[in-house]
Specification:
This protein is about 5% helix and about 45% strand. It contains one helix and twelve strands; from the N terminus they run E-E-E-E-E-E-E-E-E-E-E-E-H. It binds dTDP-4-keto-6-deoxyglucose.
Length: about 130
């Protein structure tokens, strides 16, 4: 399994950089929610779940962090360290995030509103659903 990376067009000039994110353009779904994760202690791991239907694009707008993605058959690791690259995470993909830099701000665009019922937090249950 390869990570699905989206490389955003960067508009930069002497005043700095700008990246535009647009649903159904460079983001492959309707954007219903945006959240961001910051101040994560360096040795912390987050995630440990999959989603039943949610699709997301994760972008490290500052600093860096790593993702482990697991489709039930294969795992892949991916380092996010650029504000111009997004990681697409489809549904039924187990994810863990780790190796956060102190300054990391991880922004996530999501295809649905927050719904705890969409989470699969038990790894054995995830394997049953994924396979
Ligand atoms: C994911 C990874 C990349 C809300 O109330 N609304 C929200 O939109 C979100 C995302 C979370 N929450 C609450 C639920 C928990 O009480 O915020 C708390 C922390 O969420 P969670 O433990 O799920 O955070 P992570 O970092 O483990 O996972 C998050 C997303 O939840 C998840 O969808 O794919 O980031």
């Amino acid at each position: 399994m390869d990570p699905v990376l989206i490389h955003f067009k960067e508009m930069s000039d002497g005043r700095g950089g700008l990246v535009a994110l647009e649903q159904h353009q460079n983001i492959p779904f309707e954007i219903k929610r945006v959240y961001y994760i910051y101040g994560t202690p360096v040795n912390t791991r987050r995630g440990f779940h999959a989603h039943k239907a949610l699709e997301q694009v994760a972008i490290c707008v500052k600093g860096a962090c790593s993702f482990l993605l697991d489709n039930g058959k294969e795992q892949v690791e991916c380092r996010l360290d650029s504000s111009t690259t997004g990681l697409y995470i489809g549904y039924k993909i187990w994810r863990e995030m780790y190796d956060f830099t102190e300054d990391c701000v991880l922004m996530v665009l999501a295809s649905e509103f927050y719904d705890e019922a969409d989470y699969i937090r038990d790894y054995e249950k995830f394997l049953e659903e994924a396979n």
